[in-house]
Amino acid sequence: MKYTRLTKEQLEELHPEFITFLASQSIDKAAWDELKQNHPDTAEHQLDVFSDLIWDSVLEKAQWLEHYSKNHIFLFKISQEGMESIVIHAHTPTADFLTEGGLQWLNENIFSPEVQLSRGKKDFTEDRKQYLFGLIEQGAILSEGVLYQQLEDMF
User: Fold this and answer.
1) What's phi and psi for 46, nearest 5 deg?
2) Could you tell me which of 36, 116, 126, 143 has the fewest CB atoms within 10 Å of its CB?
3) pLDDT at residue 153 above 90?
């Protein structure tokens, strides 16, 4: 596998796409049930191939990632060649960006000395999709880039 298998919840959400994937390989419901019952390794392989196809498609289209921790928010704007980042760091133990209250605190204190914003840029020197997948494995989530765009205009 190039990435990781989709979770049960993700596979359930992508059920129609999975049916289409199986149909493209001439596997109908009866054949799938037979595979699961009598050839579980082959069925597992089909899940892995499907997962890789989905991840590959998602990562190819990815334009924005966000990663939240207690005192940091990492915002990424992604292109084919590299990515730009805005990093928000709260210099107070009372801020917790993992809570709604922490995000409200940030909204009220973004221009205070307790909040540091920095920008960065990185060219991809390795496989772009693998690099983005690594960020997702570390906790980054795909986003619409709203916060990045708001801050980009301000700083």
Assistant:
1) -65, -40
2) 126
3) no
